[in-house]
Amino acid sequence: MQNTIITRVCLFILLAYVAHALPEGCSWVNFRTKRLNAWNKLVVRTGFLKTCQFVCEHHKGFKCRSVDFSPKERACVLSEGDRADSYLRDYKWNNWQYSEIQCKDEGRNRSSCLLVGPVGGNIMYASTMTNNIRHHSTVQQCEAACRQEQRFFCVSFNFRNSTGMCALQELDTKMAHLAQVPTFDYYELNCDPGVNPLTWQPPALVAN
Fold this sequence. Notes:
Elements: H1 2-18, E1 26-32, E2 34-36, E3 40-45, H2 49-57, E4 66-70, E5 75-79, E6 88-90, E7 97-103, E8 114-124, E9 133-134, H3 139-148, E10 156-160, E11 165-169, E12 178-190
Antiparallel strand pairs: 1-7, 2-6, 3-5, 4-5, 4-7, 8-12, 9-11, 10-11, 10-12
C-alpha cells in the first residue's frame, strides 16, 4: 500500500514537471478520435497521455513533433511529423487521440499569418491533399476556411472567382512552383517579418 502511494506521488511529480517541460511559447494541442496519417515512427507502451507526451519531448532518436495515443491499447506512437507534413484521419476506435507540439515562433501553423495575393492566373498545382475543395465560396470565406482547417495546416489556396471554387493547400511558393491557369488566382498565408500584401510577389519562378 505504501509503495502504491509513493508511486502515485512520483507520478504526480512527473506530470507536474511535464507541464513545464516545453520551451517558452510551445504547448500541446489535442484532437480526439484522430490519428496522423503515415508518419508513425515508434511505439511506446503507456496508459497515460502525459507520459506519452513526456517521452516525445525528450526523445533523442529524432525530433518528435506529435503523438497518437490510446489508453485502451496502452499505446503511444511517436511521430517526427505533424499536420504540416501529413493530415489527420478519423479513428473512432479504442479512444485514440492525436496530440502535437505547437510553437508560436516556428510558423508551421499559419492560421494567424497575413494573407497575401492574389497572384492572377496561377495555382498551386503540386498539392496531393484530398477532400480540400469547397464550392460557391467568396475569397473571404475561402480564407476563413484555410485559417480554420484542422485536418492539416492550410498555408495557401487556389480560388476561381467565376464559380466560387476554393481549393485549400498544404504547400506555398517556398515549397513548390506555381502553374499558370488563367481562370484561377492564388493566395497564401505569409508569416515573413515585414511582408507587405500590396507589393508581395512569389519567390519561386512560375512553371510553364
